[in-house]
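Lecture 7 notes: from sequence to structure.
We start with the chain below.
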Amino acid sequence: MAAAVLLVACSKPAPAPEPVRAVRVMTVGAADIESSPEFAGEVRARVESRLGFRVAGKLLKRHVELGQRVKAGQLLAQLDVQDYRLAVDSAQAQVSAARTNRDLAAADFRRFKDLREQNFISGAELERREASLKAAQAQLDQAQAQLSAQGNQTSYTNLVADVAGVVTSIEAEPGQVVAAGAPVLRIAQDGVRDVVFAVPEDKVAAIAVGSKVVVRPWAQDVAWPAAVREVAASTDPVTRTFSVKAALDERQSPALGSTVTVHPEALTRAGTPAIKLPTSALRKDGEHTAVWVLERATMTLRSQPVQVATADGNAVVIAAGLQPGMQVVSAGVHVLSPGQKVTIFQEKLTAQAAAAPAPSVTVAK
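Predicted structure tokens for the same chain:
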């Protein structure tokens, strides 16, 4: 008996049974979707031109600044014109030389024509003088055309605004040598404004040219109607999104570059019934998203894979995997296991709290 008592005293105590955990559950039901997809957009001009000189040279002066409004015909920038003026002087000298040669050939032709009328020379000699006169006249015409072209080159050293607008970018500074056609300024033309926003690949198919969108500026509590006028044919190589342009009404002229939110009507699902769950009810089960479903008959849990469609505020919309009437654990899902016995958590009120009158509820509209 003493040995038995000793063995019992030295053995490990039996482990305590695991307590039954209380969990918060919610009954699955259909509810209306309240939010709709929105995208951040930027207001841009319908036409935005990059202006540059038609000739190369050193940028001497720039007469406008970033954000400045310009008028059609206003001088924007100038190149160093010295080399072009020397070229004009050279062309003028060539014209003078060609005119002198033409006058000399004309005088020779007149003299030889008089001699031919008196039969002192042959007809072939007169034809040679006439050919020399024509060649001299052609050289004069060529020299005059070169002078005119060189004059145009000189005028191209002045960069002039084609239309009225706003300077949105400056890409060259005084002292810089620019090539012909290199952008120097960018001007957003006055007129209709566009809203440009990016749409992911899985939603661009629903947006067609002509579909309606609602534009809301961040700084104002207004809504502007707009229509999609252009959808990019390919994705952006960096963001992998499609650029969409929506035309605002001509009466709306928001500031260029201002940020707005865009709500495409083609993607709006507000008012559509769907199954929604709080994000705290979701968990990762391998490669799938799953929730814990309560089996009321045995008060145990089982894992149920679900398919998430989109977000609706702080909730997620479930596309497949659940049926109305199921009870789903809504909190503490990461500490549970399959087949675990649970109880439904119920709020406990103290006697003093139960006897106290119900507080008034203020509803903020």
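Points to note: The chain has four helices and 24 strands. The two ends are 80 Å apart (CA to CA).
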